[in-house]
Amino acid sequence: MTLARGRNTIEQELAAGRWAVSYDMKCDNCNKPATVHLTEIKHGKKVERHLCEQCATTSEGMPVQGHTPINELLTNFVMAHSGLQKEEGTSCEHCGITWAEFRQNGLLGCENDYQLFEKDLTPLLQRAHEGGTHHLGKVPARRGGSGVPLSKRTDVNKLRKELARAVEAEDYERAAKLRDQIRQAEES
Amino acid sequence: MKLSDLTNRAGEWLRGSGPMSEIVISSRIRLARNISGYPFLTRISRHERQALEKRVREVVLNAQISPQTLYVDLETAPEIDRALLVERHLISKPHATAEGARGVAIGEDESVSIMVNEEDHLRLQVLRSGLQLEEAWEQINEIDDKLEAKLDFAFHPRFGYLTACPTNVGTGIRVSVMLHLPALKLTGEIEKVFRAAKEMRLAVRGLYGEGTEATGDFYQISNQTTLGKTEDEIISDFKHLVIPKIIDYEHHARRTLLNDRTVALDDKVSRSLGILRTARLMTSEEVLFLLSHLRMGINLGRVKEMDIRMVNELFLLTQPAHLQKLQGRKLEGDVRRAARADFIRQKLNGSGNS
Ligand SMILES: [Zn+2]
Ligand SMILES: [Zn+2]
Fold first, then answer.
1. Which of B43, B160, B211 shows the shortest C-beta gap to A4?
2. Which of A58, A64, B154, B261 is most buried, by CB atoms within 10 Å?
3. What digits encode the pLDDT tens for the residues B207-222?
4. Beta-carbon neighbour count of residue B342 at 10 Å?
5. Closest-CA residue to B109 (of B73, B145, B67)
6. How many CB atoms sit inside 10 A of residue B129's CB?
7. Which residues surround ligand 1, an ion (CB under 5 A)?
8. Taking CB atoms and an 8 Å limit, are B205 and A128 in contact across chains?
9. Can you give the pLDDT at residue A174?
């Protein structure tokens, strides 16, 4: 595996890695998970290629970098979902950014953009965050949070996840205990 | 507190102590925050950027994030000072070289730093030696609360803390653990680490940002998911799943070297020490490699008369900006490489028997 290189910020590099690993696809050449996704125009036709890191670095015309930069992935992702291009014209009334501009550098312009581009951002967020779409962590006190990172809702969610894990591991004793805990948390 | 106070000593995180410090160099937690009502930095005007920096600077300096807080205005700071802060992991490289109003607040023992106007309006960081993730989270959470009492952070019930890049949204948390894995490298098993990290959807990087492999067997492992998990879950995955596994691999590899390849191990360590004690011209890259082997030798009891703390200090003080600060002048090319070799010989021959 190649470590991230280049002049990107640490976060962009990390981001690049994240976008890269979170697609659940198989490599076109072998059966490993595909982490590099390219959309090329060949003879006027759109060709999509999905490759694992190894095949991507050895195959012809592919980036030598281990991780595809976030911008490229964004572009490829958006191109592969052409329905999203309808939103292209919309611009934020607060900061002026358009979806096309966001695509160019991967950075949003202001806090309102998340709401404005919610529909287009959702699939991107899911890919970047292991399917996560809703915040479960700390809530600031002035936004109704208790200042403590674990709200009750979070506790229940966490227990549910643990329950799923316990069931998967066929640890039924623990699963029963967790079920009781969830019931208690929901009733209180 | 002045910036010059930092130069000739190492920060808290290089103390070489803390749990698991023979393998875990440091634990870092970073939080990304933006202030409601101001555009993100990509779309901010010069004037707004200045106003924002001034406001945050005031709040940060009054929030008592540490007994004494140093604030460095990075727009006016000389290049060498900015490079020094990068080498100490107090600011990112892009923050050092960016333009416009920006700064960093640094707590007394350097365990806390707050970057102002980086990719997000605020980037809070806590850096501690050894495996101290829970302690780091407690500390940063408290600082976050203090700042939040004065600043209205951009937040959305569904998306959480809003960040310029959607890859940080939600908790805005980035947990990184810096590991020293020389034995896995020597036994050719370092791929195991990459595989374990990948399974857990974690990123692996090198020591000093540029992330080349050639950084003396130091690896930084960070979370990538920030949305849909609590801070506690993210930290606990690190503490209970990822890090123990990698520590186990490294311990195993170290035992193999000790038991089955003792002569080869001693040869590696002795050669490194020999070069460090006698060379006249050294690049920082070479020094990182040699110190890495020396550090392993000390940790495995093959080098007795030396102290980890001094080796850790050498890692830092032989970096270009530190070396130049200590010498009090600009050094380039062979002059710099010679000064580096001199400095190391002085330190090592002073404390050992050569
Ligand atoms: Zn493949
Ligand atoms: Zn906007």
1. B211
2. B154
3. 754 444 447 789 999 9
4. 16
5. B67
6. 23
7. A 27, 29-30, 32, 52, 55
8. no
9. 78
